Backbone:
């Protein structure tokens, strides 16, 4: 069964460093998302991406964040200068073409980001 | 602020009993509703989706939606220890591909 994959599973970085989290969405999906979950808190939306551009972003997704689809398969989240409060689990998700019953978002296993 | 509310639990249910999980949402125009299961340290896994008022059954799981009351629930019949997890209610406004708004989740423990 197709699935969303993410690398790395765990990333440790120093405050102020740049990190890139990588995702491979399900191959025939067109909509891509990043969510994050701070330990003990709810899953929060960061950004959605369609047709090579951001379709929606949350207040969390400030100028330190960027997303890119560098090729036909990868979808990346870059944090330019990490802060302690960026420590969280980051989930990539993807969904199919628009329409009822196809908006189900499937989540990858996540990348645990630890900022020291 | 569009909110999704869930009782955080923990909810303890004996093995073999019915577990009942509830969720309310504030955005009246919401159209798509999802229940995800999340084991500790893992990603959300889709259990059920529901779009119309009434019940939708899938195996041991039944989702119930009442748009007038802005209420969605999940029943788990014949609860098993492997059902012990956090159950996340999530909502999107339309049928399209938009952001999910999650509740905080209800932690369910099935007691053998």
Residues:
């Amino acid at each position: 069964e197709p699935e969303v994959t993410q690398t790395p599973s765990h990333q440790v970085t120093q405050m102020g460093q740049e990190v890139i989290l990588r995702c491979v969405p399900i191959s025939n999906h067109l909509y891509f998302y990043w969510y994050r979950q701070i330990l003990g808190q709810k899953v929060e939306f960061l950004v959605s991406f369609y047709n090579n551009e951001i379709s929606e972003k949350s207040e969390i997704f400030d100028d330190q964040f960027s997303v890119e689809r560098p090729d036909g398969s990868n979808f990346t989240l870059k944090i330019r200068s990490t802060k302690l409060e960026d420590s969280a689990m980051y989930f990539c998700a993807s969904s199919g073409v628009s329409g009822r019953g196809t908006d189900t978002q499937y989540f990858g296993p996540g990348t645990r980001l630890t900022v020291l | 602020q569009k909110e999704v509310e869930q009782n955080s639990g923990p909810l303890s249910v004996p093995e073999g009993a019915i577990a009942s999980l509830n969720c309310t949402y504030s955005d009246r125009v919401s159209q798509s509703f999802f229940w995800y299961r999340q084991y500790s340290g893992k990603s959300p896994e889709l259990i059920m989706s529901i779009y119309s008022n009434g019940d939708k059954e899938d195996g041991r799981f039944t989702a119930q939606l009442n748009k007038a009351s802005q209420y969605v629930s999940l029943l788990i019949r014949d609860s098993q220890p492997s059902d012990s997890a956090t159950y996340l209610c999530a909502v999107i406004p339309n049928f399209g591909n938009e952001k999910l708004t999650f509740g905080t989740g209800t932690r369910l423990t099935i007691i053998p």
About this structure: DSSP finds no helices and eleven strands in chain B.
